[in-house]
Amino acid sequence: MAIDIELPKLDRFIWRFSLGRDNGNGSDHFLRVKIPGGSLTTEQLRGIAELSDKYGRGYAEITTRQDIQLHWIEAEDALEIFLEMEKLGFTTDLCGQAFSEVCHGDVRNTVCCPLSGKKGYDAYWLVKEITEFFSGNPDYVRLPHKFKIGISTCENNCIREENHDLTLCWNGDGFVPLVGGGIGASKPGVRKAKNLGILVYEDEAFEFAKAVVDLYREFDAERKGEARFKNFVEKVGCKRIREEIEQRMGVKFERANNFSLNAPSEHLEGLQDDGKFYYTLPVFAGLLDSSKLRFLADVADEFGGIRLTPWQNVLFTDVDDVEALKEHLSEKFDLSKPRMYVACASNFCGKTILHAKDVLRLLPENGGFVAVSGCSNACGCHPLAEIGLCGRVKGGKQLYDVFIHGWKEAENLSVEEMVEYVKRLLGD
Amino acid sequence: MELSLVRKGDFYELDCRDMVCPYPVIMTKLAMQRVYKLEVLTNNPPSVKDIEKIAAKEGWKVEKGSEGGVWRIRIWR
Questions:
Q1: Where do the domains of chain A lie?
Q2: Is the ipTM reported for this complex over the cut 0.85?
């Protein structure tokens, strides 16, 4: 005997919304709200503040992939939350990290230069096409592992082009694709994305991205630790990937020679192409709360648009009077904070004793790129930073390794030793 | 999508394998409104804790075991 109950509402949700696993700070689950290219409306921002108050103890943080993450989410509240998110026009990453098998990989939030279209080429049309096609698409929710796409349109390398499974870099004529970036410890280790050396024109860009993901979908990885796209790229090489995609798309790509990779940096403030101004508000370690989210929405309504950056900051666009904007923002934020200090949420994954975001507070502040990851999964992007710190707990003691431009310079330092070491490096 | 409860002895079996979080919990909660002896199958570790939590909250008894990466959580009242 069986009981069957139709659940039409769940069909809408099951591949578009999920909760991730937390294991620290008394939180069992996080909710990672996808913000494609970090672009959202003030109404959506207020909506997240509401969700945070109602379900997440009023806390929120910006991630290095331009999402907003809430914590302390109860699984039994999820349906209510998903209904509210659907009304706001959001989806989440499909968090399958708890499964030990190779399964439930999806295309994560598409990262894009937040100045795109304000200064230089506007790639948000491509962000939208990629997001609409892949988010919740049942044909693309069983990839071997997560798949990360970045779109770069500036010379700052603000999206850290090296660090995506697929990066499409605008070079003025078309997109130069880089593949197989991934800086976490999974096999084959830290890999910066490799240039495919071709030019993909605008009208081929979406199909190209799809062809790359299709190729990855067929990767028959045996173990989860070997299933990232970087391992596939390592195994088959750029030449074969290029040929395979050309064959699938029925095109022969031009060679791209005019592309160079700059050191990653954040946009600060300046002039847009239309004569208006932009300004990046430093948000220390991406830490926010619901009242700050509402405040940012109010300020944006008064001064211009708002976009989240891959440096866990908030960029204001279309501003007429930057000084007035700063004065207003300084009511709730310290504008002197560094804009290129990033850290992961190790306080919630339970892998640190002294957490990554708290480590940032101990360091002298300067204008360089300083990144802290709680572990070798490198969620804080430490291998790409000028000074990168990577935590590990050994024998109940918190230790940190120090990297300079990705090279390990010191290891197994206690927190005190690490702070002194970094102070010396920064000449403090 | 369908919630399918299959009678196996005294218990109804609810197969939530390969479902990401929070769907095993949502399905369990719905099933708890229909039957009072339930065995939930899941291979998603965080869902095990969640199912235990809602069962305890509703005053149901819990028993669990795992084999080959799959948990069988028996809950009843």
A1: 341-425
A2: yes
Per the CB < 8 A criterion, the answer to whether A352 and A310 are in contact is no
Task: Decide if B17 touches A, using CB distance below 8 A.
Answer: no
Omega before A188 within 30 of 0, i.e. cis:
yes
Check: CB of residue B37 under 8 Å from CB of residue B12. yes
What span, in angstroms and rounded, lies between the C-alpha atoms of A276 and A270?
9
| Domain positions in chain B | 8-44+51-62
Q: Report whether B2 contacts A5 (CB < 8 A).
A: yes
Residue A3, pLDDT score: 72
Tens digit of pLDDT for each residue in A320-351? Answer: 999 999 999 999 999 999 999 999 999 999 99
Residues 103-122 of A with CB under 8 A from B: 103-104
B28 touches chain A (CB under 8 A): no
What's the rounded Cα separation, in Å, for the pair A209 and A245?
A: 10
**Looking at residue A253, what DSSP letter applies?**
P
Q: A33: which 2 tokens? A: 């709200």
CA dihedral sign of residues A268, A269, A274, A276: positive
Q: Say how far apart CA B77 and CA B75 lie, in whole Å.
A: 7
Judging contacts by C-beta atoms under 8 Å, the chain A residues touching residue B13 are none
pLDDT on residue A102: 67
* DSSP β-bridge partners for residue A92: A33
Q: Which residues pair with A69 in a beta bridge?
A: A32, A61
Closest chain B residue to the Cα of A142, Cα to Cα = B18
- Cβ-based contacts of B2 with chain A (< 8 Å): 4-7
Is the minimum CB–CB distance between B18 and chain A shorter than 8 Å?
A: yes
Is 90 exceeded by the pLDDT of residue A398? yes
Does the domain at residues A341-425 carry the CATH identifier 3.30.413.10?
yes
